Amino acid sequence: MTTKQVGNWTRVCDAAAVRPGEAQTLDVDPPVSVWNVDGEFYATDDTCTHEKFSLAESYIDGCQVECALHWAKFDVRTGEALGLPATGALNTYPVLVEDGSVFVDLSSRNAA
Predict the structure, then answer these.
(1) DSSP string, 53-93
(2) Would you say residue 108 lies in a domain?
(3) Which domain holds residue 84?
(4) CA distance 95 to 15
(5) Interatomic CA distance for residues 96 and 70, integer angstroms
(6) Does residue 91 lie within any of the structural domains?
(7) Which residues of the chain, if any, have pLDDT below 70?
(8) Measured in whole angstroms, how far is the alpha carbon of residue 29 from the centre of its chain?
(9) Could you identify which of 51, 69, 75, 79 might form a hypothetical disulfide with 92, taking C-beta atoms 3.0 to 4.6 angstroms apart as the criterion?
(10) How many angstroms separate the CA atoms of 52 and 7, rounded?
(11) Is residue 72 part of a domain?
């Protein structure tokens, strides 16, 4: 996927490409996922904090994602770890939907 940078905002995809209950992964290092929870968009790190596995490839139920590897659960709105074996939260990022496109601000990754 081609990404477009506008200031601090990185274009992820068309909003219509992420249906409710689905995620779209932004190919950055480490990867970030954009989640559609009932029409509201959220962005978190894509990698489970328990063990390296893509959360976008896991089970999504409402605002919760359950890692398919060891069943750790996270709230995609806040990044909070909701179930063992994960105890660390996911990083979250601001999301902007404008002109039908979803953008994520990754500038906090550069903050020391």
Answers:
(1) -BSTTSEEETTEEE-TTT--EEETTT--EEETT--SPPPEE
(2) no
(3) 5-100
(4) 11
(5) 31
(6) yes
(7) 1-7, 110-112
(8) 13
(9) 79
(10) 30
(11) yes
Q: What CATH number is given to the structural domain containing 74?
A: 2.102.10.10
The answer to whether 63 and 76 have CB atoms below 8 angstroms apart is yes
Q: How many domains does the chain have?
A: 1
- Per the listing, tokens 């905002």 go with 9
Q: What is the pLDDT of residue 83?
A: 87
Instruction: For residue 10, count CB atoms less than 10 angstroms from its CB and return exposed for 0-12, middle for 13-18, buried for 19 or more.
Output: buried
- Which residues have CB under 8 Å from 7's CB, separation 6+? none
Place of tokens 């490409």: 17
Whole-number pLDDT of residue 99: 94
Q: Is residue 36 part of a domain?
A: yes
